[in-house]
Amino acid sequence: MTQQKPSFEEICQQNERRIHYQIHKLNIRDPHQEYYQEGLFAMWNAYERYEPDKGPMATYFNYMIRNRMIDLMRKENRQQEQLANYIEEQKASHSTAASPETDPPQYLSREFSDLLLSNPALWQQLKSQLTENQWKWVYYAVIDNMPIKEIAIQENTTSEAVKSWGKQVRKKLRTDEFRQLLKQEMNL
């Protein structure tokens, strides 16, 4: 006489606490029920593969659930390490890539650049004070944050010429006339 194998639903109801036990034993925080679902899947696999002559079903469930959860923890840790390494590589590449030739320096103070960005009339006033090339430098280097080499390539000129435009703009920005204009705009 063969004994009928219980359904998975019955087995699941009887052994659901094993999943919670393993989560607790491994000190896992499971707010999204990922580990619980992994435990259910492990229990289902164990139910499907269980061979009664090899040992008790409860021991096999515990083994499968625990190892599946440990595998998931290792996978998540590996992903976090890879992400952290990627972030460090990106930081390192950005810090080593920074040079006066490739990255435009911050010519304007933070409050001045914020004022310019939020005040189109001030941009127009500044544009009226500059030559065409000087305005190109302001537009590309300050507004678009484009490197000097790229500006030179786009304008079909040398990097030295672009740097010269920038020097002329900074010289004009330091004049008392422009500072008075700026103060008037800031008071409005």
Q: What this model shows, in words?
A:
- InterPro entries: RNA_pol_sigma-70-like (IPR039425), RNA_pol_sigma-70_dom (IPR014284), RNA_pol_sigma70_r2 (IPR007627), RNA_pol_sigma_r2 (IPR013325), RNA_pol_sigma_r3/r4-like (IPR013324).
- This is Sigma-70 family RNA polymerase sigma factor.
- Keywords: DNA-binding, Sigma factor, Transcription, Transcription regulation.
- It comes from Virgibacillus xinjiangensis.
- There is one protein chain.
- 74% of the residues lie in helices and 0% in strands.
- It has 188 residues and is mostly helical.
- It folds into two domains: 90 residues, no CATH class; 78 residues, Arc Repressor Mutant, subunit A (Orthogonal Bundle).
- About 7% of the residues have low confidence.
